[in-house]
Amino acid sequence: MIDPVNNFKIPDEWIQRTNLPIDKLNSMILSGCYVLLSNGKLLRRGYTTGTTASAAAKGAVLSITKTVSEVEVKTPIGLRVRLPVQAEKGKASAFKFSGDHAVDVTNGMEIVACAKESENISIIAGKGIGIKKGSPAINPSPMRQIEDAIKEALVETGLRGAQVILFVPMGENITKKTLNEKIGIIGGISILGTTGFVEPWNEHLGEMKEELIKNADRVILTTGRIGVYFSHMLFPDHTVILIGSDISRGLRAAKGEVIICGLPGLILKWADPDILKKGGNLTVQEMIDSDPKNKVIDIALNEAVKKSGKRVVLLNRDGTILRDSHQKNMTMGGL
Which CATH class is domain 47-198? Predict the structure, then answer.
């Protein structure tokens, strides 16, 4: 069974722990709307601002000819999802659903679209959508998603084209709770989403990191987004903190059980700054790709364990485990 959002092959033992009929589980996973964790628990994915805006745009165009309460839109990765909308007379509202994400300030946020027939397709960013360097903060992937949703509505209605204006009524207030202003996005929120889905955990904990590490009974310190993603799935009972290269800082803050988990590069270079001088490779990943069983990896892993006094789990980019210090002689084992 493969998660279609990230192409992750779900281990059989995870599937067995769900106690769900295989057909039902398979249908849930294939929808893209659920994530299966190692303990058999399912979490709901949410929808990005891009998917939500697409639903509003499609609903608005459809409602030029009829009242609409639900629309189906295509995500950037090709999966189709159904979202509720409130749409009539060319105006539609859709509300952002963040699934089981613990902290998402945009959860429940309304996105409004107003549509009228025109000669071609035009998408206009209205009030509540941020501006960066003079342009609306709508990323290319969700912009294509919105345009595709409008095209589908035009086919269904038989209209020639449509002008669609997007608004986020609370956008100016909500953006103050985000990092948008620090990165130059002014006056509203961003319309984002490379997959169309929101993963059910928080990757960006900012200044709360050390406090969360101190208060966690069981914590995963990880170095990047891939580590965040798979650590949540592998260790669902732990608090996962994205610490980047500040591994030592994270360890100093920790009071409870700690596991260091992530891609090998930063972890092994933290453990042994001279690791790349021992094999003539330009990167740690290059060394692993050329020889996954290279003893230099094991030596550096042992150094990481000695330096931290903690369990260290090194991941491949597909989520399989390259090394786990708690499993002797482990090389390319599966999850």
Answer: alpha beta
